[in-house]
Write a structure and sequence with these properties.
The complex is a heterodimer of chains A (280) and B (293). By secondary structure, chain A is mainly α. Chain A folds into two domains: 58 residues; 215 residues, MetI-like (MetI-like fold, Orthogonal Bundle), CATH 1.10.3720.10. Chain A contains 15 helices and no strands. In chain A, α4 runs antiparallel to α13. The radius of gyration of chain A is 24 Å and the shape is globular. With 293 residues, chain B is mostly helical. Chain B has one domain: MetI-like fold, CATH 1.10.3720. Chain B contains twelve helices and no strands. The longest helix of chain B has 36 residues. The chains are: A mainly alpha (280), B mainly alpha (293).
């Protein structure tokens, strides 16, 4: 290869890298702008020019949002619902995935097709009858009511089945020799061997549930029972036209999931690619 | 042997039962119910009289339903293909980077996807604010007229489409990156030995090998955008919800604001069938594409 060739390649490569980095910064700018605006005093936010850094940096809006609004109860509701959904979904999916992967039983094929078919079901179309169901059970405005329709994530069963399928058969045979029961095999061998995927799936289930909007919005009518993402959009009068304070509330709503992502970046991306049907 | 098998079946039943119970309760039962009430004049809560296919027959004549169907199609058009192209370009850009820089840049693109829709809404509502939004300051700088973007018919759907692409591209980028990583380096090395140019390499190697991922990204988005509601609802508050109507919004309005469960269910069934048909087609197409390889 000739020298000028290499140089043009590097020039092109450099340009593309530069453009990618520039695009990333522009992409993230609205996030920066939202956060930085929440750290400005109200009179500074509405100034008629662009200031990329606050003149008087303040955390007052966070303090006000946390102390004078119902954000405390919304946080509690969101945490309770997200943890509840995550635990129930992961446990039921793991048990079902193990049965599908390791046991022979009548109806196994049918169950597998049922799970695959459920991918097609648009839950948004079921809102009317979810509402009827949850009100018949008397669960409107309760944590259980917010959780119930969110407890099904068929993809988690599929991922578990794939991972359990990959565990070498020798482990199972040895355990059966030792007279271990199915629960013993699952909890002492299959689960510990798949802790990685369990944590990854738990983190994304938590994030999905935390972020859910439509159902928590429909199933709650009392402000004190709202989840964080619903509350910050429904209670405008609590903030009036206090832009900075409203943005502070938005930052507080996004913070747990953003932190979860930044802490477990690898796990989150792994689980998300897995859930789309691509092996990471 | 026989007792063993029977024991297996019993254990399996115990393991599967919790999932199956929830599945029947929150998936199968509501689906059957939805079809049932769509043939009645039931309110949201409570039963109604059988009206046959009347709820369906009214749909084509209902201007608001037509707006909803049109807007949903328009939104799909504005997001699916553009979203796929944007994510592909960004994915190609990120795949050239290495190590810490790569994960930092990926994080910047991916962060919006991890946020609740209402946070995305509040941030963009602030950016686009007619009085104080930074975008309006930028329009001022260029001497252009300010636009109350989310209050106009022309700009609403395109603007929501841009926000949606911004919010969700991270997911597609991730899939493209996984796809790009799966292409063996040797193929590129062979291509560079043959002095293949950048475009040729992309056209002859990257594009065809990435095609399964591209079609996956495309169809996942297609199905997701047919079900659009959250963003449209949030940005319509205080605006023109009836002009911005989409299918799920229509279901919500009929059922929860006008207390017409039966008529809402007819639209829900329409959406349900639409999504199932698209999913089946997607599955068949992917299988065909897989068979051709």
């Amino acid at each position: 290869m000739t020298r000028p060739g290499i140089q043009t390649v590097n020039l092109w490569g450099g340009l593309i890298t530069f453009l990618t980095v520039l695009a990333a910064l522009l992409w993230a700018f609205p996030l920066y702008w939202g956060v930085i605006s929440s750290l400005k005093p109200e009179d500074e936010v509405v100034r008629p020019f662009i200031e990329l850094w606050p003149e008087n940096l303040t955390f007052d809006h966070y303090l006000t949002a946390l102390t004078t609004s119902q954000i405390g109860s919304w946080y509690l509701n969101s945490v309770a619902v997200a943890v509840g959904v995550t635990v129930i979904t992961i446990v039921t999916s793991m048990l079902c995935g193990y049965a599908l992967s390791q046991l022979q039983f009548p109806g196994r094929k049918a169950l597998w097709w049922l799970i695959l078919a459920s991918f097609m079901v648009p839950t948004q179309a079921l809102i009317i009858n979810h509402f009827v169901l949850v009100s018949q059970l008397g669960l409107i405005n309760t944590w259980a009511g917010i959780m119930l329709p969110q407890l099904i994530h068929p993809v988690i069963i599929i991922v578990y089945k794939q991972f359990f399928d990959q565990v070498p058969k020798d482990f199972r045979e040895a355990a059966v020799m030792d007279n271990a029961g199915e629960f013993g095999i699952l909890f002492k061998i299959y689960l510990p061997m798949n802790w990685g995927v369990t944590t990854a799936l738990s983190i994304v289930t938590f994030i999905w549930t935390w972020n859910a909007f439509l159902w928590p919005f429909l199933s709650v009518t009392k402000t004190e029972m709202m989840t964080m993402p619903v509350g910050i959009t429904q209670v405008n009068d609590a903030f009036g036209v206090y832009y900075a304070r409203q943005l502070a509330a938005a930052v507080l709503a996004g913070l747990p999931v953003a932190v979860a992502y930044l802490m477990f970046q690898r796990k989150v991306t792994e689980a998300i690619t897995l859930s789309a049907g691509i092996k990471g | 042997m026989l007792t063993n098998r029977r024991k297996d079946a019993f254990v399996a039943a115990v393991l599967v039962a919790p999932f199956l119970a929830i599945y029947l309760l929150v998936f199968v039962w509501p689906t059957i119910q939805m079809f049932g009430i769509s043939f009645t004049d039931a309110p949201l809560i409570g039963s109604g009289d059988w009206v046959g296919t009347e709820n369906y027959e009214r749909l084509p004549k209902d201007p608001r339903f037509r707006t909803a169907a049109w807007n949903t199609a328009y939104f799909v058009l504005l997001t699916v293909l553009p979203g796929t192209v944007v994510a592909l370009l960004i994915g190609l850009g990120i795949s050239r980077l290495k190590g810490r820089l790569q994960s930092a840049i990926l994080a910047l693109f991916f962060l919006p996807y991890i946020l609740p829709v209402s946070v995305v809404y509040l941030i963009w509502d602030w950016v686009l604010n007619f009085q104080f939004g930074i975008l309006m300051h930028i329009l001022d700088l260029f001497g252009m007229d300010r636009i109350p973007i989310m209050k106009t018919r022309t700009w609403f759907m395109p603007a929501v489409a841009v926000v949606t692409i911004w919010w969700t591209a991270g997911f597609s980028i991730l899939l493209f990156l996984a796809g790009l990583r799966a292409i063996p380096v040797e193929i590129y090395e062979a291509a560079s030995l043959d002095n293949a140019g950048r475009w040729t390499t992309f056209r002859r190697i990257t594009w065809p090998l990435l095609w399964p991922v591209t079609s996956l990204v495309f169809t996942i988005q297609l199905i997701a955008q047919l079900k659009i509601f959250d963003q449209v609802y949030l940005f319509s508050v205080g605006g023109r919800p009836n002009d911005n109507m989409v299918l799920v919004y229509y279901v919500f309005q009929r059922a929860f604001q006008q207390d017409q469960g039966g008529r809402a269910a007819a639209v829900a069934v329409t959406l349900f069938v639409l999504v199932v048909v698209v999913s089946v087609l997607q599955f068949q197409l992917l299988r065909l594409a897989g068979g051709r390889k």
